[in-house]
Write a structure and sequence with these properties.
Layout (H helix, E strand, L loop, with lengths): L1 H19 L3 H14 L5 H16 L3 H14 L4 H13 L3 H14 L6 H33 L6 H15 L2 H9 L2 H11 L3 H15 L3 H11 L1 H7 L5 H19 L11 H6 L1 H14 L7 H14 L8 H6 L2 H9 L17 H14 L4 H20 L3 H16 L2 H8 L4 H9 L4 H14 L3 H18 L5 H15 L15 H14 L5 H14 L3 H8 L2 H12 L3 H14 L10 H9 L13 H13 L2 H8 L5 H15 L5 H6 L2 H10 L3 H17 L2 H4 L4 H4 L1 H6 L7 H15 L3 H9 L2 H7 L6 H14 L3 H8 L4 H7 L6 H17 L1 H7 L5 H9 L4 H15 L3 H8 L3 H8 L8 H16 L3 E2 L6 E2 L10 H4 L1
Antiparallel strand pairs: 1-2
Length: 943
């Protein structure tokens, strides 16, 4: 044991040395080694824990400080140093009452301890104030309870009281008081009988706020009401109630996993492990509820959306567990549900249910990143198809076909895997040829979805085109419109390649006209118009169709109105049509040498249609924007599908490419929805949304485009464009937008710095691209209004010198910005002033500024020079040994009134030099070098 004690002491001593050298991580490591071998509950153990707590305190790891101090105080209960460290940590995490308790204990043990007295005084004031606020809050809670939960009270008073309780629940003090006062029981009782929808919804929101940021409160609430209660309150046809309950469940999952409600937040792995049971129970209950026969379609959609948001590996990573408890089959059950089969046991679904289920299946499948997991997923799909087809009845075939369609719209690889199985495609083609309209409808839908890959499209062209043409002659509009979409998809097989035409010339225009008739006819159901939009989404790859459609005001308006409904099942058709009209799809770069090579090898070369030239595209963008397309995109942006969000971002970015349309995008709420799209989604989607934001930020005052908190949220997407994978145009636009943001206020500048923006922006100063380096220095110029940025330029680096070198550039705007940056630096820092003269070519840069033909640059040059020489005799002497004095004298004689500022500062420079004794001014004129190296030789000279 003695050897261990000696070794532990050795580690402690080394730890103390590391601590004194400010090497806190090393100190923690050494103290930990001492703790691991020290005798349990010994005084030495208490010392090692206390010392490690001191190191943690230096690193602001307050929770670890508290934990170590707790352990140390179990051994030596009233050790002043340990109590002092714990008090500091408790205060830092806002636990003021406990911090005050420790400070009081120190004062009791050591009344002469002077270090604790100011802390005790400060904490006493904080605790007193908190006690006063708590008493006030407690009174408010009591008053609101009396009104909000009393059914006989006036309706408006009750609504206001419940709204006040929601505000109080947002503060930790209010939340704790409300929980202790039994608010959860009261809300539970209220939910059974409350008829006022606003009061009901706000009561659910109160529960959500109580659960926010507190695991203890959340567990207590679940213990009181149970998880089934949350599934009861989400079961409603009232959209606001469903949204409130969905948000409440998401808050609970966020609290247990350490995620925030912001979309880019990540879970805390340790928290997820600690609360694994609660998370698993909640998500399991949600999974089983997917196929609950008695809940509303809205509630089912909300439950699937919760699974969609939380199952992914960048969230709670629950996908494999979802597959394990047969969640895939439950989603397929929803996918196979049809309005036409309405039994007592049928599920209620909304128009968006199958779309959400397909998106959820796709998100789950994304997590199946190894063969065994994919196999398990596919096995569940196989089981579902097999079980349905075991039954020989017609309904089973129809349900399987509808489920396969959803797979083809969700995890496409799985859909293709199923449809390529023996007999499946043949079964669908046979169904399409029956006289039963329902079979015809679902078969058409499946054929449309299956024609996504070229090999499948060829099969359907060969086998299905004639069937689809025949179905198009059907009297039932629902069948006709689906057959029409199938023909449209086959007709668009060549994409935007003008040389490929599966059908005869003019056929695509005829198909487009047929789609248009369905789209603009108000007598047709929304479902028909949705299919018409999908048909156009394929046909609008043809430039002739684009031009005809965009000139059709009624069709464009009908398309936008369909988008404004926000119906997720309409989303694909509407947005893809808009992407095609804007030419916002991914275009493969065609290199001339590769074209020549392809010609030589007799390979097919895609041809661009003349109506896809930029002038035509810009005309289409203007028409769409003025027709109100932005408001439609805003409504559709609520989707959780990352691919759909990418399409929406592409349209926004295409519109924002025209400067005159950016204001309309901001007015109609485009900037607001672009920020979350730029933070989460596919890489291309985030990039497109970020570029749209950059373009808005260049043209429109950021205070108008991104008001309030939004100007901080837009920083990260813009900085993401400063990446080598982004194009020079994307880099340039991001720098320009950041330049405008940096000029707003200190808070925004701090956010740019916090996100690592300074180094990213500075990187572009060294680019061999005039526009990029110019934009970077302009951005730096605005960032230099921050003291923190100036400090980095004062550091041991050549940043200031490089900015000075930029003054020799040919580009006027670059020199202007560099001179502006130097004016700020030299005003604020003498260190930066001295750095300039360390540059070998300092005089050339100075001459470039002082003798510049641009008046503003000339003024900035003399202003900077005045800052450099003011109060610094050595620098002034060095500068006035050169021809700078002659240049300044010439500047003092400038005749034009607009050059008055330059003239004034040139004179100030000469006066400052004279005052420093660098030059003197006898009757015959200014004489350079009044101060000689060895000082004055006589009294006359000294005078």
């Amino acid at each position: 044991m003695g050897v261990h004690n000696e070794e532990a002491e050795n580690y402690k001593n080394k730890g103390n040395e590391a601590f004194k050298s400010n090497n806190y991580e090393e100190a923690i490591s050494l103290y930990t080694k001492a703790i691991n071998i020290a005798e349990k509950d010994s005084r030495d153990m208490a010392t090692y824990l206390k010392n490690r707590a001191a190191a943690y305190l230096k690193l602001n790891e307050y929770d670890k400080v508290i934990k170590d101090c707790d352990e140390s105080l179990k051994i030596i209960p009233e050790d002043p140093k340990t109590l002092f460290r714990r008090s500091q940590a408790l205060e830092s995490v806002g636990r003021f009452e406990e911090a005050y308790r420790d400070a009081k204990t120190i004062f009791t043990v050591e009344p002469t301890n002077k270090a604790v007295q100011p802390i005790l005084s400060r904490l006493h004031a904080i605790v007193q104030e908190k006690a006063r606020q708590s008493a006030q809050t407690s009174n408010k809670v009591e008053q609101m309870f009396k009104i909000a939960f009393e059914i006989s009270e006036d309706k408006e008073k009750r609504e206001k009281a419940m709204a006040n309780l929601l505000v109080l629940a947002k503060e930790n003090t209010g939340a704790d008081i409300m929980l202790k006062s039994g608010v959860v029981h009261k809300i539970q009782q209220l939910a059974k009988s409350e008829k006022n929808k606003d009061i009901y919804v706000n009561s659910i929101r109160v529960i959500g706020q109580l659960c926010k940021r507190s695991i203890e409160r959340t567990k207590e609430i679940i213990k009181i009401v149970g998880i089934p209660w949350f599934l009861e309150i989400i079961d409603s046809d009232y959209e606001e109630r469903v949204s409130a309950a969905q948000y409440c469940l998401q808050v609970i999952l966020n609290t247990f996993s350490g995620m925030d409600t912001k979309k880019d937040s990540k879970p805390d792995t340790k928290l997820c492990e600690q609360n694994n049971t609660e998370i698993d129970t909640l998500l399991t209950c949600l999974t089983y509820s997917i196929t609950n026969r008695v809940i509303t379609g809205l509630a089912r959609d909300a439950i699937m959306e919760l699974i969609l948001r939380n199952c992914h590996y960048d969230a709670i990573n629950w996908a494999e567990r979802f597959v394990e408890i047969r969640g895939v089959q439950r989603l397929l059950e929803v996918c196979s549900e049809l309005e036409e089969y309405k039994y007592e046991s049928a599920m209620n679904i909304s128009p968006s249910s199958r779309t959400i289920a397909a998106a959820c299946l796709a998100r789950i499948y994304e997590n199946m990143y190894y063969d065994q997991a994919r196999e398990r997923f596919n096995n569940q799909v196989d089981e579902f198809v097999k079980d349905k087809l075991l039954s020989p009845d017609l309904e089973s075939k129809v349900r399987v076909t509808v489920a396969i369609t959803s797979l083809l719209r969700g995890p496409l690889d799985v859909g293709n895997y199923v449809i390529s199985k023996d007999g499946i495609l043949e079964m669908i083609l046979v169904m399409a040829q029956t006289e039963d309209t329902l079979q015809q409808k679902v078969a058409c839908e499946c054929l449309i979805a299956a024609a996504s890959k070229k090999d499948k499209a060829k099969t359907i062209i060969n086998k299905g085109a004639e069937i689809l043409k025949k179905l198009y002659t059907c009297k039932d509009d629902a069948v006709r419109v689906r057959a029409l979409v199938g023909l449209c998809k086959i007709g668009s097989f060549g994409g935007d390649d003008a040389s490929i035409r599966p059908f005869a010339d003019g056929s695509t225009k005829k198909l487009a006209e047929a789609c248009r008739r369905f789209l603009v006819n108000p007598a047709k159901e929304k479902d028909m118009r949705k299919w018409a939009a999908e048909g156009l989404s394929y046909l609008t790859l043809d430039a002739d169709v684009k031009e005809k459609l965009v000139d059709d005001k009624a069709a464009i308006q009908a398309l936008i109105e369909l988008a404004k409904t926000g119906d997720q099942s309409c989303l694909y058709g509407v947005v893809t049509t808009l992407v095609n009209l804007c030419n916002a799809y991914e275009k493969q770069e065609v290199m001339p040498e590769m074209v020549e090579l392809a010609k030589f090898a007799k390979h097919h070369i895609p041809e661009q249609h003349e109506l896809d030239d930029p002038d035509f595209v810009n005309k289409r963008l203007t028409i769409l924007c003025k027709a109100g397309v932005t408001s439609g995109l805003v409504a559709l942006s609520k989707t959780d599908s990352h691919n759909s969000r990418e399409l929406i971002a592409r349209v926004f970015n295409a519109i924002c490419s025209l400067q005159e349309l950016r204001g309309v995008v901001v007015q109609q709420g485009g900037a607001k929805v672009l920020i979350p799209m730029a933070l989460e989604g596919t890489n291309n989607g985030k990039k497109q949304a970020a570029q749209a934001l950059a373009r808005i930020g260049i043209t429109i005052n950021p205070e108008v485009a991104f008001p309030g908190q939004r100007n901080l949220e837009v920083v990260r997407p813009l900085l993401a464009l400063l990446h080598p994978d982004c194009s020079a145009l994307e880099n340039f636009e991001a720098l320009m937008a950041l330049c405008n943001l940096a000029g707003m206020n200190e808070t925004t500048r701090n956010r740019i710095l916090k996100e690592g923006g300074l180094s990213k922006i500075e990187h572009y100063l060294y680019e061999d691209h005039m526009m990029l380096s110019r934009a970077a220095i302009q951005c730096i110029c605005n960032l230099l209004q921050s003291e923190d940025v100036i400090k980095t330029y004062e550091g041991n680096n050549d940043k200031t010198k490089y900015v000075y070198l930029l003054c020799q550039e040919e580009d006027v705007d670059t020199v202007m910005a560099a001179a502006g940056a130097l004016c700020i630096l030299t005003s604020a820092s003498k260190v930066c002033c001295r750095k300039l003269l360390d540059l070998e070519s300092w005089l050339e840069s100075l001459r470039c500024l002082l003798a510049n033909p641009v008046k503003e640059i000339q003024y900035r040059g003399v202003y900077m020079l005045y800052n450099i020489i003011s109060g610094d005799q050595d620098i002034a002497a060095k500068i006035f040994e050169t021809d700078v004095m002659e240049i300044l004298m010439a500047l003092t004689r400038l005749p034009n009134p607009e050059e008055a500022r330059t003239k004034e500062y040139a004179q100030k420079c000469l006066d400052a030099a004279e005052k420093l004794g660098v030059i003197r001014k006898p009757d015959e004129g200014i004489i350079r070098g009044a101060i000689e190296e060895n000082g004055p030789n006589s009294e006359d000279e000294a005078e």
